Amino acid sequence: MAAKTANVTARIQPDIKETAEAILERLGIPVSVFIDMTYRQVIMHNGVPFSLEIPNKLKTRESISEVEFNKMMATGLKQAKEDDSLTADEAFANLRLELAK
Questions:
Q1: What is the reported pTM?
Q2: Using CA atoms, how far apart are residues 10 and 91, in angstroms rounded to an integer?
Q3: What are the start-end ranges of the H helices in the chain?
Q4: Do 74 and 66 meet the contact criterion of CB atoms below 8 Å apart?
Q5: Which of 20, 45, 68, 80 could cross-link to 49 by cystine, CB 3.0-4.6 Å?
Q6: CA 16 to CA 37: how far, in whole Å?
Q7: How remote is the C-alpha of 44 from its chain's centroid?
Q8: Is the dihedral of CA 22, 26, 29, 35 positive or negative?
């Protein structure tokens, strides 16, 4: 006899959903399997199974040297002159992907 199942409904921002689902698809994990795995981990750990700290992954002005900063600025100026840029939506999507790594 097959195990009973229950539905889970959650409202999240569309771009967060799309980004996460794209990563899960690359991993070959259906969303329903990921949710099941996550719930099982919560049960096994009797709490959230990962750290809820905000990692300092992104470079900030305070975290890089003067040489690195000048190189970044030169790259940005070159890209601006060559009209090699992203829309704000593309830039934020890239940041979300970078943070998800």
A1: 0.51
A2: 26
A3: 14-27, 31-45, 66-81, 88-100
A4: no
A5: 45
A6: 19
A7: 25
A8: negative
Asked whether 63 and 56 are in contact (CB, 8 A), the reply is yes
The model's pLDDT over 71-92, given as tens digits with 9 standing for 90+, comes to 999 998 998 899 888 888 888 8
Instruction: State the DSSP code for 58.
Output: S
Q: Is the pLDDT of residue 13 over 90?
A: yes
The tokens for 49 are 């199974």
Q: What tokens appear for 9 in the block?
A: 């409904």
User: What does the block give as tokens for 13?
Assistant: 């921002």
Q: CA-to-CA distance for 19 and 97, rounded, in angstroms?
A: 7
Q: Is the dihedral of CA 87, 93, 99, 101 positive or negative?
A: negative
- Tokens in use for 50? 């990962």
Average pLDDT value over all residues in the chain: 88
Residue type, 56: N
Structural element, H or E, at residue 87: none
